[in-house]
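User: Could you go from structure to sequence for me? I need the amino acid at each position, not a summary. Structure tokens:
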């Protein structure tokens, strides 16, 4: 069976993050060799360049903490349409950009899945659940709201686009969670989202937790989207992110997840979010993320080239 073409879409969104730099993410992924890696794995790749946000609307919210609401909504509108169109042509790979981009990517993909009569599932790899509403966010940074919005929580009406197909919370699995605000904790308690925090991963291991979720996706013949935040990884191996939380996934754990996902044959779309090259160390985080995507797309451990480093002694 010929694999679907990979549709690469840059999403230089930084308004949701509260600090500058994420808009350079798409360029960093391209520079780190993402498209070359996909070609080397035998995929047809179409790079559609960077998405442009819709025109801004005058939007005011009673929560005075909220930042960049018109900009985030404009990005969400553009990304939802781009996701819907790209998912009809191949496998969308969104290279961002802060995690607010998922408000658009997930909802556009969910619309496509619903029209095709398929259940839509999301594997959320992140240290944060991003389950704030416009009314509960205290930081005002809207990269903290996409999952609440996409699953149809109240409070987005009249601001964000109306949802064509809200994601069922029970179809969401979050892994690597280790930073949750009180309002998010209260909302998640009754939402029905499956959450595997780092303690659950430590106690049970990655494989059984992920296998259980993938079995549900397979049983439903579902469409699976993977939303991968850089801060899912431990900052010791992935420093290029503005929201570092200690105790994240290791190199080996992350590659295991990617390889299990590839073996499942279920992944239909990917978000790569929160890479901030301004905070990175000589492209280290971008290169690691590209390496992980290669594993998800089929590169095996035995195929990974050995990197050699030459020691140059100091002179004088």
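Assistant: Here is the amino acid at each position, in order:
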């Amino acid at each position: 069976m010929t694999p679907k073409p990979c549709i690469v879409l840059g999403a230089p969104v930084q308004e949701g993050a509260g600090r500058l730099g994420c808009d350079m993410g798409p360029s960093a992924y391209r520079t780190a060799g993402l498209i070359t890696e996909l070609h080397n794995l035998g995929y047809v790749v179409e790079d559609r360049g960077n998405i442009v946000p819709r025109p801004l609307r005058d939007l005011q919210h009673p929560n005075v903490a909220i930042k960049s609401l018109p900009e985030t909504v404009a990005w969400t509108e553009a990304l939802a349409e781009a996701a819907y169109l790209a998912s009809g042509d191949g496998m969308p790979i969104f290279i961002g950009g802060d995690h607010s981009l998922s408000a658009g990517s997930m909802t556009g993909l969910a619309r496509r899945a619903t029209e095709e009569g398929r259940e839509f599932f999301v594997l959320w790899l992140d240290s944060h659940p991003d389950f704030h509403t416009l009314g509960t966010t205290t930081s005002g940074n809207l990269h903290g709201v996409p999952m609440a919005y996409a699953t149809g929580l109240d409070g987005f009406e009249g601001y964000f686009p109306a949802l064509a197909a809200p994601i069922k919370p029970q179809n969401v699995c979050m892994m690597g969670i280790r930073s949750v605000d009180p309002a998010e904790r209260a909302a998640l308690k009754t939402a029905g989202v499956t959450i595997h925090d780092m303690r659950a991963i430590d106690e049970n291991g990655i494989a059984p937790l992920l296998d259980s979720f993938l079995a549900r996706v397979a049983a439903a013949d579902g469409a699976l989207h993977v939303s991968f935040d850089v801060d899912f990884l431990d900052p010791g191996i992935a420093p290029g992110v503005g929201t570092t939380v200690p105790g994240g996934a290791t190199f080996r754990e992350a590659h295991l997840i990617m390889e299990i996902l590839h073996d499942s044959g279920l992944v239909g779309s990917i978000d790569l979010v929160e890479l901030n090259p301004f905070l990175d160390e000589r492209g280290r985080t971008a290169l690691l993320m590209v390496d992980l995507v290669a594993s998800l797309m089929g590169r095996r451990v035995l195929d990974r080239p050995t990197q050699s480093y030459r020691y140059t002694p100091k002179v004088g």
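One structural detail worth keeping in mind: DSSP finds ten helices and eight strands in the chain.
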